[in-house]
């Protein structure tokens, strides 16, 4: 049964409120509480002198009320005394300016002194609380990458980057060859002469930028691994997690996930809608619900990182403070988001935060409670969600099954298209999301997988954009047995960020006999519909399955595999994916606008993201556990359903 929880900051409240807080949490149906992730200045007010007493009391209190604690290491907020004693631990931005004390995440991952401090405070905490009966899990740090903090151009980072390059290339001649530094006389004579790619007059060499991104990602992994190793030593049997973010790709989350037991993430659907690339029409229509596929996309993405276990560490409970505009969720949305996480297999959903703080940076961010300690809307919805979850758990669900569609996504692809978009707005992340969204609107369930995952047994595999083909990928595709759709720019780069000798799609030419000889990025409207803003010209003997008016090919097919040589307008992408899903015998359906489905453990969930009521197409007698055919705005219905089709 999925747990519900909340993020609580006892250090921010009078201690005589704690008992009432914790009692109310338990009464609300919450069973998990995350604490401690920003509490360093209260845990160690002066260097080496710890004040554990308050945290001892908080943990004991939570334990006494049956609440399991997820304890955070406080390394996202190094205190003032630490920064003053070690000012060069600050991260440095691309303009060469040190980031300052006064908010959070101000450290550089490469700074050896700060790394030692991170190990020290983690060891102290783990020793003290590693076997505390209240502690069920640990969270390392908080949101690596938040506020654009993976990359640092500090002296420590530059030095560590040089060492990283020396290991990767062995000798400088190999690096010069790989990067193509003969171009613009950029040849290096030694690793010592290489800087981080910042402040260059025009764009730096893309291979330099890609290696710096890989290096920066590796620094996050190394930092995290140090904490994980310490926690495993001193806190046996507890899960270790880290809370990832929405649409943040600045480090390799698949690699991070392999070091964790559970990958968690922080879900702020309204903030994400406002913050990202969505059309004005979508921003209006979904202002109080969030985009119907954003939470789901991240559930499926993070379930595929690591060991298949995921949860929501922070769930938006009301208006937030950090987007350009911060509306209140439609009544019912907090409950809907909670149940949707369950439908995707989340182990828990924790609301951020217990009570709105009347002071400091996030005073305009809602909590489950108002600052005056009264229940806010979120508290009522959390209570309803707890009752729903109990009802669903009592429905004796079946074991979890795989989804029928695999969508291949990797972080490096996003780095490649960010470094060299070639056309405004082109992003492998956006491609992946748009394909995902179109598939979901067809009523399909999706597993988002890293490119080294086995694809065997999936009736449908889609690869929206994978410029660098990892070793063995083409063979895995060849052997997967399902229908395959490959998107533009796949196979278009070598690992060294060059065009492959045989031209794109590189090694994929073993499966489909075509070469991309030229690409165009286009202002929408320049190319004839249904091309949106990217068009590839292919040299091939294959007859295009879908030709454009001028006879040029849009989709080419070789057996089970199709190659799409353009980005498409939404409707055309949906039609193509529907055709491919038909070939895979997945029975795609046209769901009512704004409605999404997810099957999980023998139950089928339906969610209405539309601001209007929707009616599910009648399909014989559904045995409803929650809701009914008529879905009000923010409505949820759940019925029993046998798995749609056997996936081995
Ligand atoms: C998250 C962060 C929390 C809080 C929250 C506000 O990014 O982890 O500490 O700042 O956003 O929405």
Break the fold down into its secondary structure elements and pairings.
Blueprint: E1 3-7, H1 18-28, E2 32-35, H2 40-43, H3 53-64, E3 68-72, H4 80-85, H5 112-129, E4 135-139, H6 155-169, H7 172-179, H8 206-234, E5 239-244, H9 253-258, E6 262-267, H10 269-275, H11 280-285, H12 294-303, E7 310-315, H13 333-343, E8 348-351, H14 377-393, E9 405-408, H15 411-419, H16 428-441, E10 446-449, E11 460-463, H17 473-479, E12 483-486, E13 514-521, E14 531-540, E15 546-547, E16 553-558, E17 561-564, E18 566-568, H18 570-583, E19 595-600, E20 603-608, E21 614-615, E22 623-626, E23 630-631, E24 636-640
Parallel strand pairs: 1-2, 1-8, 2-3, 3-4, 4-5, 5-6, 6-7, 7-8, 9-10, 9-11, 11-12, 12-17
Antiparallel strand pairs: 13-14, 14-18, 15-16, 16-17, 19-20, 20-24, 21-23, 22-24
Top keywords for this entry?
single chain, 648 residues, alpha/beta, 8-stranded parallel β-barrel, 7-stranded mixed β-sheet, 18 helices, 18% strand, binds beta-D-galactopyranose
Q: What is the compact description of this entry?
A:
The chain is of the alpha/beta class and 648 residues long. Helix content is 31%, strand content 18%.
